[in-house]
Fold this sequence. Notes:
Helix content is 9%, strand content 56%. By secondary structure, it is mostly beta strands. Strands 1-2-3-5-7-8-9-10-11-12-13-14 form a 12-stranded antiparallel beta barrel. It comes from Flammeovirga yaeyamensis. This is Transporter.
Amino acid sequence: MKKIYIIIQLLFLGGLTFAQNTEEVIDASKPTNFYSQMDIQFEHAGASDQYGLRNSFIIAPSEKHLILGELPILHNTRTGATGIGDVRLRYFYLPYKNYDKLLGAFGPSIDVYAPTGNVDKGLGNGRWVVAPGLTLGVMAFEKVQFFPIISYQYMSEKAGMLNENGENVALHGMTFQVITPIVFSPKMYVQVTPIVQLPDFRRAETNVACEILLAYSIREKIQLSGFYKADKTYGQTFRVGTTLFF
């Protein structure tokens, strides 16, 4: 009887250890790690006279596929209007990931912004935006990696907007950015992302920006974050919020 009791104890402890070892470790510092999650971010963009909630939901059916939907609810302090901003959809496919190699990951993605926000009330951009891109993952160091992303960007005509020649035209351009995660501990990391944008191939004008994201996990599947963006054209944006992983 005593032997049976010991065997049961060993089996129980072995099963518990196995469950702990197979439990998924969340590493959201790398943009090529996919997790199903929900983000709720309070946003303030002073140059656009906007503040509100930027809500997103991500479904990751596997480590190769990611689907994102984003629904901003904004208030414009200039017009006094409150409503839905421009909705964003994203699909990211990752056919290759091996962080033991220098080239640790690569895959294509596509972002689509729908002009659902009211332009006259200052809640939207008024353009369809379609941006297919390619992401690479460079595993430079154990705690510092580089994820360059190059994207083509199409922006449709904007109703009621004319340029200096009296034209309302679509824009074709590109964006290059490098997401740089720096991991301080298993619970805390920062992402620094310099961005260079050429909004229209017909013009030599470029726009530069930089994003900084600081994230800290207060629990295994709950993460707090702060975000700051400085943009040459669109000014400064601040966000604070939380992420729930599923």
